[in-house]
User: What shape does this take?
Amino acid sequence: MFVLLNAFWSSLWSFLGGALVGGIAAFFISKRMFEKQLKENPPVNEKMIRAMYMQMGRKPSEAQIRQIMKSMGQ
Assistant: This one.
């Protein structure tokens, strides 16, 4: 009986330790992947909005740019 309990607790601790290490590793890997994606594909900024307006043949006013930035922030 004691041997079975000892095996149970050792396997439980192994499982919990593995889950903890896996969770920490997954956190740092996903954080690194997210930062890499942000670096490769930066969020839209005012300069990009101006360029899009110019490609459409329009000159945007500052109020339009601020309005778009505000709507994207929501």
